[in-house]
Specification:
The protein is built from 7 helices and 14 strands. It is an alpha+beta fold. It starts with a strand and ends with a helix.
Length: 269
């Protein structure tokens, strides 16, 4: 049997081959392969990465024939930085890179290293998420960005690099559901809008927190009118429960929106 290769048997009786390498007293699995030749090739590729200082992040893609690119990044980081992570992370000065693929490098602050070393980032339909306690969470939630937020409208990347997830580069524009920042005479204002068979204006308010509470009130009124829709609720921690209740009661809602709800009640009644 080739160096670094062992034979194993699947449940159906088919042979397959495992490849592994030991480096700095740590045994590292390189993967499973259908042939001894492929497993041996993965071992040789891994050995070259671990022992050749001229191989770097730019050059490892050319060294990956049988060895998965993600595993090559793991080995390279272990060689250069002395830390082993199961995910494709490479430590840099003051931050780290997480490689989704050979051509997609995400950048994060060191503060997030522990989290992403144990949570694998996945991509589906352009969205990045991790599995945590059996649930899928968008990585944007770590920045206080709500689900279904739109890049360029609700948040933006300060330096224009949409792969740079360092905290200083993430600018949250609209923190709350149904709230949009607008510019008016005298400074910024916040428009609250709710979607019920089209967008309905709730009102314009002088703070985004008030607009968020107004959205919650409009959603409650819609439910009371018999609209069976799962409206997301804004969590507004700027107020005490008493202050929230007083503001909720005092906030004015668009008369046109209230009339629309009355019409819905009549039609359903």
């Amino acid at each position: 049997m080739s160096t670094g290769v062992s034979r194993a048997v699947k449940k159906d009786g088919t042979d397959y081959y495992r490849s592994g390498i030991t480096y700095r007293n740590k045994h590292i699995s390189l993967g499973s392969f259908s042939s001894e030749k492929d497993a041996a090739s993965a071992y040789r590729e891994a050995q070259a990465i671990l022992t050749s200082p001229d191989i770097d992040l730019v050059g490892i893609i050319d060294r990956c024939g049988q060895l998965p690119f993600e595993k090559a990044v793991v080995l390279l980081n272990f060689r250069d930085n002395g830390l082993y992570f199961k995910n494709p992370i490479y430590l840099r000065k003051g931050y780290f890179s997480y490689f989704l693929s050979s051509d997609t490098e995400l950048k994060f602050d060191i503060d997030d290293l522990f989290y992403y070393s144990s949570h694998k980032i996945q991509r589906r339909q352009g969205h990045l998420f991790v599995n945590d306690y059996g649930m899928q969470y968008s990585i944007l939630s770590r920045y206080g960005i709500r689900p279904h937020a739109v890049c360029g409208r609700d948040y933006r990347f300060s330096n224009g690099d949409v792969t740079d997830y360092r905290y200083a580069n993430i600018v949250v524009v609209n923190r709350f559901h149904g709230v949009r920042k607008i510019m008016a005479k005298g400074g910024p204002r916040y428009r609250a809008v709710i979607h019920i068979n089209g967008n309905h204006k709730i009102g314009i308010y002088n703070t985004e927190e008030k607009a968020a509470v107004a959205y919650n009130k409009a959603a409650d009124l819609a439910k009371a009118a018999g609209i069976a829709k799962n409206f997301p609720e804004n969590y507004v921690d700027a107020f005490s429960p008493k202050e929230y209740a007083e503001l909720y009661t005092a906030l004015k809602i668009s008369k046109r929106y209230l009339a629309c709800l009355d019409e819905i009640r009549r039609q359903s009644g």
